[in-house]
Write a structure and sequence with these properties.
The complex is a heterodimer of chains A (276) and B (323). Chain A is 38% helix and 17% strand. Chain A has 276 residues and is of the alpha/beta class. With 323 residues, chain B is mainly alpha-helical. Classes of the chains: A alpha/beta (276), B mainly alpha (323).
Chain lengths: 276, 323
């Protein structure tokens, strides 16, 4: 703690400049410098959003999962869901960006104690992703956020389809025990956008029942190729061979489907490619 | 003969409770399917016969195993706190599963289960060796060794998590949180073999185990080979715990709660407690699994959280009366 206080004390940059008050997506009011020059992101989707909003040069540190665009690979890493607070503070950021879903609430008091402002961004639903582009563009003063947001909205709109009958889709996050993308998530929004229907009737990212999986049998099962094996997905349906035979099991890039950033457009395009 | 006669009413009552629990278990679930449809609806048949029934039976067997293992360890150590978790047996299984998952072995079917089983057996061997001094195994030292090993296993699990990819981590979580998701007929068969073998072995040793209640010196005076009984009992308890944990992951409180409940209701005689504890443990876990399957429609509640929620108040009320 003393170390954190010392670091803040020798961080005169943010003291000298003027401060302004902004409200983040949790409704917290946050004091940030008028001009933001140094940004640390704590989630990979936020890193991508900052780049797309034109704020890539302001990034001085990212979380361990950030891998896109290529430029971020040389930036200092500050850890995962439980970031290394000392490392974050040592980077002397003007603002730290965290996401509502992926980050621990416990980091807020530690950062506040070190005098580093924390701005929380909500990207749980599809429409919140372009909104986040606009907001972060404005926060970072890139002058490019609104343009990037409306471009992304256009790109998303171009993926809109109507299908009859609607293909029933399940996105398997993990196979054993079974976790899936439920209703009212951005992945669910992607299904709706592309004319499909989520076969999972539960909200959020639930631990899903195997009985319900078979009772609401899907036409298409998507799984992240990097983390889930095809066999483990097939095993979920092995009790009902006729369902398994009629099933289209498709590996997808998990970074597009489970990371609510600008590349969700590619997930939507992939969905359309699968179903067209 | 007299034992059999005085056991009969209790066995009948507990068997009836278990049968009711099993019937409820196979008739409720997140999918609305009827037993009348199994002949002509393939999906209904699959849901009932290949998902629900093996899961309910696995719950019963895991529950019986954990309760019997708890009873065995409590009797051997003459310590009411002893159960597979406190002795580090399940911790060893969970640590084995976590390390195997972190190494990316989760993609080979059955391999992580096998490592979990090996972990449970290794943990028992370690506890026993740590507690042994001059041909004698001291119960207090055993408990302390279990405590220390548990701390070690927690450290191993945390390390495995820190070094593994986020994706492998989810696989290891299965063993930490405990679930009967995806139980298969093969697992039911294996659990049944383990439980039956252990019950036969423990029943065979029951008279000697019963003597341990009076203290090891006393038992030795009555001609019991205490060290051999302790070793045999420990091997039995660990093998079945390993088998249970490798299927369901760590589910707490069953091994602690059920033997105490049975002791309170019936006698403290090991020969009585063995069958009663098995039946009680089976009923308890089937009931907990039913709640975990139906409490939230289409989703699942973690069963270990449920056994703790059920177990803590029951155990506290037992504690207030008499332990």
């Amino acid at each position: 703690m003393v170390f954190l206080l010392l670091l803040t004390a020798c961080n005169p940059a943010s003291r000298a400049r003027g401060m302004r008050e902004v409200t983040d997506d949790l409704g917290r009011s946050v004091q940030v410098p008028v001009t933001i020059r140094r940004v640390v992101t704590l989630a990979p989707n936020l890193t991508e959003i900052v780049f797309a909003a034109g704020g890539g040069e302001t990034l001085v540190g990212v979380d361990q999962f950030s891998d896109h665009p290529h430029d971020v690979r040389s930036l200092p890493r500050v850890g995962g869901m439980n970031p290394d607070i000392e490392k974050v503070v040592a980077l002397q950021p003007d603002v730290v960006l965290a996401s509502t879903e992926g980050n621990q609430p416990g980091i807020a008091p530690s950062l506040a104690a070190a005098g580093v402002p924390l701005f929380v961004v909500r990207t749980d639903r599809l429409h919140e992703i372009p909104a986040a582009l606009a907001r972060l563009g404005e926060l970072l003063g890139t002058g490019h956020g609104e343009v990037a947001a409306s471009t992304l909205r256009d790109q998303i709109r171009r993926q809109q389809r109507r299908r009859d009958p609607q293909p029933q889709v399940v996105f398997v996050v993990w196979a054993d025990p079974l976790y899936v993308a439920g209703r009212e998530t951005f992945t669910d929004d992607l299904f709706t956008l592309t004319g499909a229907r989520n076969a999972v009737p539960v909200k959020g990212w639930p631990q899903y029942s195997q009985e319900s999986l078979l009772a609401n049998a899907p036409d298409i099962v998507l799984y992240p190729a990097a983390t889930v094996s095809r066999e483990s997905v097939e095993r979920l349906f092995s009790a009902a061979p006729s369902v398994l035979r009629g099933l289209q099991i498709v590996p997808v890039d998990d970074n597009h489907f489970t990371r609510p950033g600008p590349r969700v457009v590619e997930a939507a395009a992939r969905l359309n490619e699968i179903m067209d | 003969m007299t034992i059999a006669r005085s056991l009969l009413p209790a066995v009948v009552v507990l068997s009836a409770i278990l049968i009711v629990a099993l019937l409820i278990g196979v008739s409720v679930g997140s999918a609305q399917v009827s037993w009348r449809d199994i002949a002509d609806d393939e999906i209904a048949g699959a849901i009932l016969l290949r998902i629900r029934v093996p899961r309910v039976l696995a719950a019963a067997l895991v529950g019986a195993i954990l309760a019997v293992a708890g009873l065995t360890f409590q009797t051997l150590l003459r310590n009411p706190l002893a159960d597979p978790f406190i002795l580090g047996v399940s911790g060893g299984a969970a640590a084995g599963a976590a390390v195997a998952s972190a190494l990316g072995w989760g993609r080979v079917p059955g391999l992580v289960q096998l490592v979990a089983f090996a972990g449970a057996c290794a943990a028992t061997a370690a506890v026993f060796l740590l507690a042994r001094r001059r041909d004698h195994t001291d119960p207090t030292r055993l408990l302390l060794a279990g405590l220390v090993l548990n701390a070690f296993f927690s450290a191993v699990i945390l390390m495995a998590f820190s070094f593994s990819k986020q994706s492998d981590l989810t696989g290891a979580l299965r063993w930490m949180m405990g679930t009967l998701f995806g139980a298969t007929w093969t697992e039911v068969l294996l659990l049944a073999i383990f439980l039956t073998a252990a019950l036969i072995a423990l029943a065979w040793m029951a008279s000697d185990l019963r003597m341990l209640v009076f203290g090891e010196e006393d038992a030795r005076g009555r001609g019991v080979d205490v060290e051999r009984i302790k070793l045999a009992g420990f091997v039995c308890g660990s093998l079945i715990t390993g088998a249970a944990v490798s299927v369901s992951g760590v589910i707490g409180f069953v091994g602690l709660l059920v033997p105490h409940l049975m002791r309170l209701i019936w006698r403290r005689d090991f020969r009585f407690l063995l069958p009663l504890t098995a039946l009680g443990g089976a009923s308890l876990l089937v009931a907990a699994d039913v709640i975990s399957r139906v409490a939230i429609p289409s989703a699942e509640l973690p069963i270990a959280a449920l056994t703790a929620l059920l177990g803590v108040p029951l155990f506290l009320s037992l504690l207030r009366r008499d332990l």
